[in-house]
Amino acid sequence: MxxxxxxxxxxxAAALSVLLLPDAGLAQQEYGTAARSPRIDAYQxxxxxxxxxxxxxxxxxxxxxxxxxxVVRLDGDFGEPRAIPLDVFIGDYKVPxxxxxxxxxxxxxxxxxxxxxxxxxxxxxxxxxxxxxxFDLRFSPDERRPFGRFDAKAVRASPED
Length: 161
Fold this sequence. Notes:
The protein contains five helices and nine strands. Helices cover 26% and strands 40% of the residues. The protein starts with a helix and ends in a 5-residue tail after the last helix. The protein is of the alpha+beta class. The strands form two sheets. It has a five-stranded mixed sheet.
């Protein structure tokens, strides 16, 4: 292999890595600095009566039907909506699904037993299932009772969405 051929191969490999590998600098800019690190400032819990029952597996592994859900609203800074996917945690519980925008996230908890189990646990965030930061703010549904009623129509009509 000639020196020219080696230089061409090295140049091609460098160009290919720029195209194929995620931009670590962008990830650092988006979440790695104090200015862009996800932040949770406050949370609220609402009770929602479901239009039709939701069937889920409860904390004991039993298939159950739920006619109500507890909607948790997180307020803070969660980065750009289409940026690096963010995992939300309460203690070691990874929130399986959530929606929202860069300043507000919503998720549902169907099982009241899980609500009680998460009492006092800190909020946290991570990436790809691994928690990387825990916040001082703790989940305390008992302190937030009675819960207000959740209106999904009002959320969809919000000018922020």
